[in-house]
Design brief:
InterPro entries: LPS_export_LptA, LptA, OstA-like_N
Radius of gyration: 17 Å
Subcellular location: Periplasm
GO molecular function, one term: glycolipid transfer activity
CATH class: Mainly Beta
Largest sheet: 10 strands, antiparallel
Number of domains: 1
Number of strands: 10
CATH topology: lipopolysaccharide transport protein A fold
Structural class: alpha+beta
Subunit structure: Component of the lipopolysaccharide transport and assembly complex.
Pfam families: LptD_N (PF03968)
CATH superfamily: Lipopolysaccharide (LPS) transport protein A like domain
Distance between the termini: 53 Å
Strand content: over 45%
Length: 172
């Protein structure tokens, strides 16, 4: 029984490494989960971490009140992180930091689809997007940001950062 629980737990967590693009070396790093409590429902294939959850893997860092990982038969996992807010940070291959925050972050590993909901924000250097909801298709490399009638999507782009990126691409 303990071996089954441990195996399921390791399978679920090992797939988490592909959830967010970061340094290529991050995916080979160990996944560390710290929480006040955790539970495993073997029958439903659900692992729940609660009470000030901190997940790290290489340069990836996620803070949340609660993280639920669901494995559906024959499908890849779905990860739900909840908090006020959930905060994640990562370093990209180019060395730049990306930060995100939202009240809820969901990632469907099978569809490679990320959703940030509730006061969502993505930030890289001084550029950022704020919206009620931000979705990102990893496969299609498409981002969509939406807000309700009461608020609007806010985007700040720093032209100097785009110029730096273009000059670096020309050097390659």
């Amino acid at each position: 029984m303990k071996a089954t629980i441990k195996s399921l737990f390791l399978v679920v967590l090992s797939t988490f490494s592909g959830a967010i693009y970061a340094l290529k070396s991050d995916t080979s790093q160990p996944i560390n989960v710290h929480s006040g409590s955790q539970s495993l429902d073997i029958e439903k294939n659900i692992v729940t971490f609660s009470d000030n959850v901190l997940i790290t893997q290489g340069s990836i860092k996620i803070n949340a009140a609660k993280v639920v990982i669901i494995r559906q038969e024959g499908k890849k996992e779905k990860i739900e992180a909840m908090g006020s807010p959930v905060i994640f940070e990562q370093t990209l291959d180019d060395g730049k930091r990306v930060e995100g925050r939202a009240n809820q972050i969901s990632y469907d590993l099978g569809a490679e689809f990320l959703t940030l909901t509730g006061r969502a924000e993505l930030k890289q250097l001084d550029s950022f997007i704020q919206a009620e909801k931000i979705t990102y298709s990893v496969k299609k490399q498409q981002l969509n940001a939406t807000s309700s009638n009461k608020s609007r999507v806010k985007t700040v782009l720093m032209p100097t950062q785009f110029q730096e990126k273009k000059s670096q691409e020309k050097k390659k």
